Amino acid sequence: MDRRPIKSRDTSWAQWLAKVIAGMGISPNFISVLSVVFSFFGYLAYCQASKTSPYWLILAAVTIQLRLLCNLFDGMVAVEYNKKTPMGDVYNDLPDRIADVLFIIGAGLYCKDLKFATELAWLTSCLAVMTAYIRVLGTSIGTETYFLGPMAKPHRMFILTAASLIQPFIVSIPLVYYSLWIVMIGSAITCVRRLMAINKEKMEGK
């Protein structure tokens, strides 16, 4: 599978840390699974925020970023340090889908008292998974790997992170709730854009 273009991959700190991780003998598959662990803790943080204090949302935001760091380093360790495995593509993609669902459903549970919040979270998580499914489906039938937005994984996680960080300080506005609407609409648009790109490539190549 092609790699998502990530600017931070070329930074000196990322390259140094990837070298350290690879030198410790940590496998890229383990890093991928670790992203699900962080996502589960993010889910718990959202649940705790709904029951006690909104400041738990800050922890949720931190776990989102830790998940993204795992997504960065599993690929760097696998490719730059030749630690790819036969099941590497599965480990690279499947944990991401689990993580998406955990974070989005967690955010929905945080604002469950708002209208349609639970349904919104489930629909948003389905669309988030669908964006990745369409990308992989296109690759499986021989097209380019399309990481088109406007709501690819980094964009989804940025919206959730920003909303979760700001929400504890502006409790009068349901920012997490609104962020789910943004991610949901953006993910639907992303699905359509990727399908259109795949269709165009196949039609022009026939």
User: What count of structural domains?
Assistant: 1
Q: What's the total count of β strands? A: 0
CATH architecture call: Up-down Bundle
Radius of gyration: 18 Å
CATH-defined topology: Four Helix Bundle (Hemerythrin (Met), subunit A)
Helix percentage: over 70%
Q: Compute the number of helices.
A: 7
Q: What percentage of amino acids are in beta strands? A: under 5%
Under CATH, the homologous superfamily reads CDP-alcohol phosphotransferase transmembrane (TM) domain
Order of helices and strands: HHHHHHH
CATH classification, class level: Mainly Alpha
In the predicted model, the low-confidence regions spanning at least 5 consecutive residues are: none
Descriptive notes:
With 206 residues, this protein is mostly helical. The protein has helices at residues 12-23, 28-51, 56-80, 88-110, 117-140, 153-166, 175-205. It is 74% helix and 0% strand. It starts with 11 loop residues before the first helix and ends with a helix.
What is shown here, in short?
With 206 residues, the chain is mostly helical. It has helices spanning 12-23, 28-51, 56-80, 88-110, 117-140, 153-166, 175-205.
Considering the chains and any ligands shown, give keywords for the structure.
206 residues, mainly alpha, Four Helix Bundle (Hemerythrin (Met), subunit A), 7 helices, 74% helix
Question: What secondary-structure arrangement, pairings included, does this model have?
Answer:
Blueprint: H1 12-23, H2 28-51, H3 56-80, H4 88-110, H5 117-140, H6 153-166, H7 175-205
